[in-house]
Fold this sequence. Notes:
Elements: E1 15-20, H1 29-37, E2 45-50, H2 53-61, E3 66-69, H3 73-83, E4 85-88, E5 91-94, H4 98-105, H5 113-122, H6 127-133, E6 137-138, E7 161-162, H7 167-174
Parallel strand pairs: 3-7
Antiparallel strand pairs: 1-2, 1-3, 2-6, 4-5
Organism: Mortierella alpina (Oleaginous fungus)
Keywords: Ribonucleoprotein, Ribosomal protein
InterPro entries: Ribo_uL30_ferredoxin-like_sf (IPR036919), Ribosomal_uL30 (IPR039699), Ribosomal_uL30_CS (IPR018038), Ribosomal_uL30_euk (IPR005998), Ribosomal_uL30_euk_arc (IPR035808), Ribosomal_uL30_ferredoxin-like (IPR016082)
Amino acid sequence: AKAAGNFYVPAQPKLAFVIRIKGINHIAPKPRKILQLLRLLQINNGVFVRLTKATTQMLQLVGPYVAYGEPNLKSVRELIYKRGYAKVNKQRIPLTDNSIIEKSLGKFGIVCMEDLIHEIYTVGPNFKQASNFLWPFKLSNATGGYSVKKALHFIQGGDSGDRELKINNLIRQMN
Length: 175
């Protein structure tokens, strides 16, 4: 199959939603800096991240402090509609109508909520501007609590690290 070149490799997910689940104490400088770069300054903050080689390595380094995975369209839509805030002139403004989006992102062809959701979900050419325009999502504590220990990796029955498609359940609990 390899010689013929007819084997199928599933595409890597392009989009991740990262939620900070650990507090601010006892974090080494390097992971702390990465959390700052990801704009995850408070516990239960969430951001959309484009998955590249660089961001994947960053997420591995901050794995113990965050939960991340591949959100589906329903999750992206619910988050933006319910918890979406815009960053306009360094201020946090609720996304009440499309004019806010049009003023800031109109030049990139994003004029309404659905354009914004589409750009984020498909990781389009203006993903960076769209993602930066959204203030980091302030989520509530997971209803029903976390699993046994949130410090353990997801594979070991904890909460931190990569949980791929299961991130959607966590988003439901926290939104």
